[in-house]
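Entry 12.
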Amino acid sequence: MRIAINAIASTAGGGRTYLRHLVAWLQSRERDEFELWVPDGADFQNLAGHIRIRTSRLARSGFLGRLVWEQVVLPWRLWREGTQVLLCVGNFCPYASPVPVVLVSANALYFSQPFLEDLWRRRHFRWIPRHLLKGEFVLGSARAAEAVITPTQAMGDALSRALGAPPRRWHASWFGHQARENEPPATPLLPARTNELRFVIVSFYNYFRNFETVFRALALIRKTTDLNIRLLLTTELRPGLKLGGYDTTQAYELMHELGIASQITCLGHVPYADLPRVHASVDGLIAAGYVESFSFTLLEGMAAGLPVLASDIPTHREVGGDAALYFQALDPSDLASQWERLARDPRLRQRLAAAGRERARLFDWASHFETVFRTVAEVAA
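Predicted 3D structure (tokens):
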């Protein structure tokens, strides 16, 4: 079967993680031919002959360019090249495709009311119309596709509410993670210290990952307890720095206003291959996002044997189950209380670490991609 895969919008961290594992899985699927459209910077070497990598200058010229490419150029190419089915893995797909379409819809941000309110509070008024427009294209794509796959039931429920009804053919299929059980222990990125507990947020800075609530909770702990806690960030924070359009200035100023800058270490960008070294350097992980579609951060923290503090949102509950400690997403006091509880109770940390390792075994890339391509075969038929 000739299958086209539109991954041109897989530019964020989670999207690139998905794309990397997708390509690895395609390598063994030699009975089909794949034309894989990828974003700039997606560099794949030594691919099998049944996988062809494509890029588009028009698609990388901006949102409008990508829209024209997706809605006009891509359908024409599908028709011209005799493609049998299109798999779209970046939330968007053509409204009028000459072949059946399977859509992986994995970004609840586009219909998140808290995110819109956050943009308003930050006075990002220019973002709001563009964000709403993209949300309409996400919903239109879900309506146009023959089948929709979401990474969690929670994401599918959010999509269904935004659509007013569930997609006509919808599957929830959990993403996986990179199993590292047989690898030797990673060398910690930072030297050990006996006088402090370390926690990490694994994320580039953005608004919905809720850094500011974590900062306020850390300030409360500093003010009301004798705990010595260090927070590691796998990002940079400085005035004027924008990461993917997200301005880090307010977060930088907040940590100085709260007097906690000395307790925060910005590691900058950490390559995916070095994440085990980060995990080996800390005593726990915080997944504080107020909206998520899945949560690679939470899952990989569990798989690494870290106790996890997670915001109490449906997606985190679905992924973390009983293997995480939860707090109200936008409540610094609740986070500080749960954080202190975890910091003071080594038995709780050990129990959560063991439960997390066990739960992480439920998430498997092979199972996810088998569901995806079984659905591709069904709609192609």
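Annotation: The chain has two domains: 2-176+364-380, 197-360. Residues 63-80 form the longest helix (18 residues).
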